[in-house]
Write a structure and sequence with these properties.
Elements: H1 3-23, H2 36-45, H3 51-64, H4 68-72, H5 76-82, H6 89-107, H7 115-118, H8 126-135, H9 146-154, H10 163-173, H11 179-192
Length: 221
């Protein structure tokens, strides 16, 4: 390991240490659910939508559709109306119905526990799959949402734009025991201090470790 690599490893370690101190190591999910399939549908709805809005929608949605079979047999136009406020409701409704049908027919109503099987479901990409792997099956996974993409670039942990490439960069630089935690902590950080529109760099506890402070768009890996 070169001197520069060692210094970077130490910097990343300090970032994680400060995140742990500020936000704890508590595992939490911002989406409300009771079953694995409910979380899967909630995450599908969260694309281009806030968790708060999704939680409002799913509160009634999961009362109306009480099983995967209910979703699989739903009328697409009716489901579109039920999820209308989450945006992109045409595509989401179609994918939810198709996904529920595949889970019922091919998986006996069980949500699979591998990235390959999950991403083989209609409307399920790597982000959604990794949320399921981390929150349901407690398998180390890196979830790249808008907060993680933006702040990881500011912190210099990646210079990529593509979420999958960012995922692999973070898997390389973060210790496995922080893969899930990092997402949880960075979401909190992105909603509080490091907001997209008005980052409060002067108040940030990561300021001295952040090459992207004061408005930089990216940093070095």
């Amino acid at each position: 390991m070169t001197k520069a690599q060692k210094a970077e490893q130490e910097r990343v370690g300090k970032i994680l240490e400060l995140l742990d101190e500020q936000y704890t190591r508590e595992y939490k999910c911002y989406l409300n659910y009771e079953t694995p399939w409910q979380l899967l549908i909630a995450v599908m709805l969260s694309a281009q939508c806030t968790d708060a809005r999704v939680n409002v929608v799913t509160r009634d949605l999961f009362e109306k559709y009480r099983s995967l079979e209910d979703f699989a047999s739903a009328e697409v136009m009716e489901l579109e109306q039920d999820i209308h406020s989450t945006g992109f409701y045409h595509t989401k409704a179609k994918n939810i119905i198709a996904c529920a049908g595949k889970l019922v027919k091919e998986y006996g109503g069980q949500v699979p526990d591998t990235i390959e099987e999950l991403t083989g479901l209609p409307g399920v990409g790597r982000k959604t799959a990794n949320v399921i792997l981390g929150n349901i099956y407690h398998k180390p996974s890196v979830v790249v949402d808008t907060h993680v993409k933006r702040i990881s670039r500011k912190l210099g942990l990646t210079k990529e734009e593509d979420p999958e490439k960012i995922e692999y960069d973070l898997m390389r630089v973060l210790p496995e025991d922080h893969w899930i935690l990092y997402n949880i902590q960075i979401i909190t950080h992105g909603r509080g201090l490091c907001t997209a529109r008005s980052p409060r760099c002067g108040e940030c506890f990561l300021r001295e470790l952040c090459p992207g402070k004061s408005g930089d768009k990216g940093g070095k890996v």
